[in-house]
Amino acid sequence: MPTPKVPNEERLFSLVLALLSTENGLTKSEILSTVQGYRQRFVHSGDNANLERQFERDKDDIRELGVPLETIEPPEQAGNNQNLRYRIPRVDYELPEDIKFSAEESTLLGLAAMVWREGSLSEGSRRAMVKLRSLGIETAEPVLSYAPQLRVRDESFEPLREAMDRRVLVSFEYLKPGEQSSTTRLVAPLALVQHQGRWHLYAKDPHTEQFKTFLLRRIVSDIQRSKKTFDYVTDDAAAQALSGLEKVWQSNVAMLRVEPGTDAATRLGKRRGAVMHPDCILEVNFTDVNIMADELASFGPEVVAVSPPHLRSAVIERLKRTVADHG
Description:
The chain has helices at residues 8-20, 28-34, 49-64, 90-93, 103-115, 123-134, 157-166, 237-251, 263-269, 289-298, 309-326, and strands at residues 26-27, 70-72, 85-87, 168-174, 183-195, 198-204, 211-215, 224-229, 253-258, 275-277, 281-285, 303-307. With 327 residues, it is of the alpha+beta class. Strand 5 and strand 6 form a beta hairpin. Helix 10 (289-298) packs across helix 11 (309-326). Mean pLDDT is 82; it is low at 115-120 and 141-151.
């Protein structure tokens, strides 16, 4: 029987759940063989190279979301990467003690929790917890009492996935940053990939034969499937897409002045590759200047974009717009 597919968000949820559940951390082998989304594809005494690469990407996505994922090297096994242990410190993950909710806020949170199906873990996550205990790994209960029912993917994800399965061309309206109106795109969908916590479509323009990457959040219309099929090779499309996005991420470097101890310092400082320089200057990579500018502007006075100039200008423009909108 074919291995059942586990949605990406369920795999990430299960990974966070497992790493929160242990004080001593889990090795890569323990994670891949027990956690929902990995264990289905884990080969005992076999080649798990693809699964390990998936885990490395998932670690980056979790850190990008601000989750404090730690790597622990046992002193007696220094230098042995296979025995590195991973965990999420509960004290850093939970809300600070000085944050309190009013009765109304608690009610709203409760309603939101009901959407996520209050009261039980998903069956897959429960099985993973049982198997972790069978390995002698102590877990703290309850870790989380909600199993996600909402899809965190963009609305266009499923129609695009179906078009990929049927290998048909699709068209949609795409709004690029800074433009007032969208443009119609006709493409052959080759891969859907997640990079830095966001979904992208990797596709080929049938007219120009060029490969292009689209951010799903910028698709502003329904996906229209055509009756025209395509026969492009798609075996390595996802790898090509991720490689291209990684090159963009590597080439874009931001220098930020952050206020120590703030939410901005914590979240931005835990990103993959982040480097803190003297005078509270934080160096971080980014993929999309507009998304980065939106995020930096949301931190208000906690962070100042120093460079590059186009990122700094984009942040200032957003702050001016906010001032104008609110008087």
